[in-house]
Amino acid sequence: MLMTGPGGLRDQRACKGDVGPGQADTSTQMADNSKTEDAASDSVEAAKNTSDKKEKLADQVMQNPQVLAALQERLDNTSHTPSSYIETLPKAVKRRIDALKQLQVQCAHIEAKFYEEVHDLERKYAALYEPLFDKRREFITGEAEPTDAESEWHSENEEEEKLAGDLKNKVVIEEREAAATEEANPKGIPDFWYTIFRNVDMLSELVQEYDEPILKHLQDIKVKFSEPGQPMSFSLEFHFGPNDYFTNSFLTKTYKMKSEPDKTDPFSFEGPEIVDCEGCSIDWKKGKNVTVKTIKKKQKHKGRGTVRTITKQVPNDSFFNFFSPIKVSGDGESLDEDSEFTLATDFEIGHFFRERIVPRAVLYFTGEAIEDDDNFEEGEEGEEESVYHSYISRKMPASLLNANNSNKEIPLQSDI
Question: Which regions are flagged for Polar residues bias (predicted)?
């Protein structure tokens, strides 16, 4: 029987598979969900494959001994640096460390006062050395002759030298007597300071051939310390006998020092440092200035094409450029690299004159001090380091120190 009512119609549509609007939307949503699940499944699978590849690559890298060693070194360095340790400390402990730093700054200022008193002590003992150095000058220049007692000296190899001398005397005694009558007895010790310049590499590198005749007139080198109450400094005085080159009886070079902690970096203080130097004017006689040279240069006129020859003076390499140093700028302007290195070398030479050459001149003349320097290995136990030596610390501004420690060739003043 055919049912024609509403219920019968619904039954018929259901039997025939007819779908209403609500059921159609549900079917579409289910299909979309299915696609989303498939896409998600694909993404998960792809991510899993990528992860597997990374794990395999990581395993291969970690099996490399060099990679492992580099990683370990980095970890060691990171974990053991003092700064990283300090960062881990409690705030109260860091506060106490800051207090220690304040104490350290006060210690630096006390140390600066100590070095100022050392400078005063140097001045005091320089006065005690002065009579001895004056007598040394008299013996060198021939102004005085040492007595037998003053000239008595026993060398380590005296017996061997005596035997050798006796044998030689038997052969050449007559020749010596003849030479003594023909040749005048030389005055003093000829070329004393010039010989020291030749013996010391640091100095001989600065001396040109045309400097040598002038240096043979050098009679004395003195060190003068600043007076009490004046800024810390020392001066070198080079005393010359009458010569054909300049009229000055002596030439001076003054080195200025500072003995106080830097306000911005007080912990870097290690003693006085040379901060500047001043030379002097040399009154050269006409045509005798060895610090310049005259050159001829041809010039062509742009319009007429004529050529003329002009002469001009240009700087010349010479030891006497030592008395015309580069000026340290007071306005904070930095020097170029070559100028910094030249100035650092200048400071080092001035310090070497003060601490080595002047106090031990005779040993540099004979070469004994040079042999001692050659036999001495820096850094070995037993290094002779006096308060006087450590006081100046061979110090100079950090930028200059770095320049001086480089392996560059020392540029001369005329190259700057």
Answer: 24-33
What percent of the chain is predicted at pLDDT more than 70? 63
pTM: 0.66
CA 190 – CA 142 distance, rounded (Å): 9
Query: Which distant-in-sequence residues (6+ apart) come within 8 Å of 320 by Cβ?
Result: 211, 214, 251, 282, 290, 291
Please name which of 262, 237, 241, 263 lies closest in space to residue 251, comparing C-alpha atoms.
237
Contacts of residue 267, Cβ cutoff 8 Å, sequence gap at least 6: 101, 104, 105, 108, 261
Tens-digit pLDDT profile for residues 304-347: 777 787 888 889 999 999 999 988 766 556 777 888 888 889 99
Closest C-alpha among 318, 317, 298, 295 to residue 308: 298
Instruction: Tell me the C-alpha distance between 32 and 134, whole Å.
Output: 112
Q: Is the pLDDT of residue 242 over 90?
A: yes
Indicate if the pLDDT at residue 233 is higher than 80: yes
- Residue 394's closest CA among 361, 350, 338, 341? 350
* DSSP structure class, residue 152: -
Pick from 249, 211, 206, 214: nearest CA to 349: 206
Taking the C-alpha atoms of residue 377 and residue 387, their distance in angstroms, rounded to an integer, is: 20
The architecture in CATH of the region 97-146+190-328+335-372 reads 2-Layer Sandwich (3.30)
Q: Under DSSP, is residue 33 helix (H, G, I), strand (E, B) or coil?
A: helix
Q: Which of 10-24, 128-142, 219-233 has the lowest mean pLDDT?
A: 10-24
Those residues with Cβ within 8 angstroms of residue 196's Cβ, 6 or more apart along the chain or in another chain:
203, 357, 361, 364, 365
Q: Who contacts 301 (Cβ-Cβ below 8 Å, separation ≥6)? A: 307, 308
What are the extents of the domains in the chain?
A: 51-88, 97-146+190-328+335-372
Q: What mean pLDDT comes out for the span 152-178?
A: 64
pLDDT (mean) for 284-297: 91
| Distance from C-alpha of 140 to C-alpha of 187, rounded to nearest angstrom | 8
